Amino acid sequence: MTFLTVLLLPFLFIGLINKMKAVYVGKQGAPILQPYYDFFKLIKKGEVLSDTSSFVFKIAPSINLACTIVATIILTLLNFNGDFILFSYVLALGKFFSVIAAMDTGSSFEGMGASREVSYTSLVEPAFFIIIGSVAALSGIHSFRNLYALIQTHNEIVILISLLAIFALFMMILIEGSRVPIDDPKTHLELTMIHEVMVLDNSGVDLAFIHYASAMKMLLFSTLIANIICPQFWWAYWLVLLVIAFLIATIESIGARIRLTHIIEYTFVMISVALIVMSLVLLVMHGGHIA
Amino acid sequence: MDVNMNILEFKNNQKIKRADIPVMDFESFSKKILPYEVRVINLFAKKEDGKNRLYCIFADDKNKKLFLTTTYVGESYPSLTSSKPCLHMFERLIYEETGIMPEGHPFLKPVRKQDGNTYKFLESHDTQTHEVAVGPVHAGIIEPGHFRFLCNGERVNHLEIQLGFQHRGVEDLLKKRPSIQLAESICGDETIAQSLAYARAMESLSNIEITQREKLIRLIALEMERMAIHVGDIGAVAGDVAYSIGANVLGVTRTLVINTMLELSGSRFGKGLMKFGGVNFDIDLTMRTKILNMLEEVCDRTDKMVEAMFAHATVISRLENTGFVGKKKAREIGLVGMAARAAGEEFDARVFDDYEDFEITTMKTGDVYARTYLRYLEIKKSAKIIKNLLNKLEDTETEINNKRFSLNLEPDCFVFSIVEGWRGEVAHCVMTDKNSYIETYKIKGASFNNWFGLALAVRNNQISDFPVCNKSFNLSYCGFDL
Hints:
Chain A is mostly helical. In chain A, about 70% of the residues lie in helices and about 0% in strands. Chain A has one domain (about 1-285).
C-alpha cells in the first residue's frame, strides 16, 4: 500500500504543493495533475545530448531513478537489520551518479551546482544517522521498524524525541527536495540554483526520470515522518502527507529563500536537533543516572 | 562655477544656433570637465569640416544648470579617463565610432561590437579562480547579454559584461527617418521617457510650442510609467529571493497601472500616446477619475505589501549589504538615476523639467535594499505628483489640439533634451545641418552609465546573489545597445 503510494503518487504530492502555493498568493494555479502531464510529455520527447558528455551522462538519470525505487522498496516492503543504512547509501549512490553526470557535461554552471548539492546534502547524512541510530538504540530494533515502535512507548520524553525527530526530518525534506528556503524550484536564474542547475543539460526521458526520482525522494522522507507519527492507520498516513504538503507550501509562500552562505547554518540546526534527540535517548536509556 | 565665454549655459530643450556653440582648447577643456562637482551627461565626437570635435554636455546639479562646451582634437588625444574614471565608457564609444584614440585609456574594448579575437575577456591565471560564462542566451526570456564571472568558489572576484547583441543602429535610423514610433521603440520599458525626449527635441527644433494641457498629460504619463515599472521591479526583486507572495501581489498591482495606461493610450506601455507636437489622447473627466482610483488602489496595495515584505527577516537578510555601491564609488564611475540616488547622490533630471517644487528623494546605503526601498519611495512620490498634475489639468484649456504637424526643422541648430525616466536620465542630443536634415542624433540612457555599476556591485558578493543585484538595477540591454 505505502509502496504503491510512493511509487505512483509522488507527482500528486508535488502538484498539491504547487496548487496550494498558487492559492496562497491568490492565483488559480495549474491543475493538481500537471506534474503527471509534464512527465508524460517529457517521456514522449526526444533527447538532445552534447558532444562532450560521455556515457555517464546518459546512464546517470536511470541509475538515480533505480536507486530511489530500491530505497522505496527497502523502506516500505523489506525489513531487516540495518536496512536504514542500506536505504541511506542507496540514495547516496543515486546522488553520486547525478553529481558526476553534472560534472561530465563540463559546463561551469553544472559543476557549480554539483559542488553546492554535495556540500549541502552531505550534511543531511550525519543528522539522519544520529536520529535513526538513537531511536534504534532506544528500542533495540535495528531497522526502520524502530520508528513504528517509538510511538508505542508511552513515555513523555519519547514524545519529545518523536517531535524533534520529525522536525529534523522535515528540514531534511526541504534540503533533499530542493525547496525554499534552501533552493527555489521555480527560479529560472541559473546562478542561484542548486539542484536545477545540475540538470540543465538533460532533456526528454532523462529529465522525466530526474523529476520523478526527486519527487519520489520527497515522498519517501515524508513517509518516514508519517511512520513516526501514526503507523497504525492508513488514513493517518494520508493526513500526514497533506499536512507536510501544506507546510511546504506555506513556507514557500510567505518566506524568502535564505542566502546560500546561510544554508550551512540551516544544516547545523538540523544536526543540532539530531544531537538533542541523541541526548534525550541517552537520558531515557540511563534513567537520568550517570552510569 | 564661473561661466566664462567658452562654456555655454543653456536650458533643457533650448534651441541653440550651432554657430554659438563655444570652442575651448583641449587643455582648458580637460581642466574644466575634471572637477568633481561637474557631472558629464554626454561626451561624443563628431567630424566637422575635416576636424574632430568633442562635444561635452555637463550639469551642475546643485544649481540646476546645464552646460555645453566643445574642443577640437586630432586623431588622438590624452585620455581623460585616468583622471575622471566616469568617462571611460564615453571614450570607449568615441574610439569605436570614430576611431579617435584616447591615449592611455586603461581598457579600450569596443562597447557594442563583438570582436572576441582582438579583445579578450579579462583572464586570471590564478589556479584558485574559475570562470563562469552566462549568456547571451539565458534560461529565462530576457534580452541577450554576456556576463563573464571570475570566481573564487562562490565569491565573485570580477565581472565583465559584454553587450551589443541588440544593436539596431537606432541613432542612424533616427537621422534618416525620424519618427515617434522609432523613438518609442528605443527601449520598451522607457517608452514614454524616450518618446518624450524625442518629441521635445524635435518640437524645439521646429519651433512648435505645445499647450500647457499637453505638457501636463505628458508628465502624468511619465510618472505613471515610473510607478508601473517600480512596482513591477520590487515584485521582481521579491521573486528573485523566492518571496513568492510579494512577487505575485506586486505583479498584479503593476497590471493596474499599465491597464490604466492601456485605457489612456491604447497600449499598456504608452505607445501611441506621444505625438510630434503634443499628445494623441486627452485625459477627460472619466479618465481622470479612473486614474485617481487607480492611484489609490495601487498605493494602498503597495503600502501593505512593501510593509510586509520589508518586515520579513529572510527578505531583509537577502537584500541588506548585498550589491553595495557607495556614494564615493557611485560618483567615481558616474552612476546616474535611481541607482545613484540609492547611494546618496542628490541629482534628478526632473529638476530641469516642468515640475514645480521638485524635491529629490535619496537613500544612503547603496545596497540592494536601498535600491528597492527607494523605488517604493518614488512610487509614493509619483502618485503625489500625478494627483497635483491632475488638479492643475482642470485649470487649463479644455481640449488638446488634433493638428498634425510636419517635421520642419530649423537648419544649423543644436538641441539637448533630458528627461528623467524611471531608470535615470534619458538624454537626446540632436544637431541639424544647413539643409535642415538631422546630422547627429545622440542618445544616452541611464543603462549606459549603470551597467558598470552592476559589475562593481557584485564584486566580493556571492555569485548566487548576482540575479538580485541585477534586478535591483534592472538595466536595459536594448537601451544600451541602441
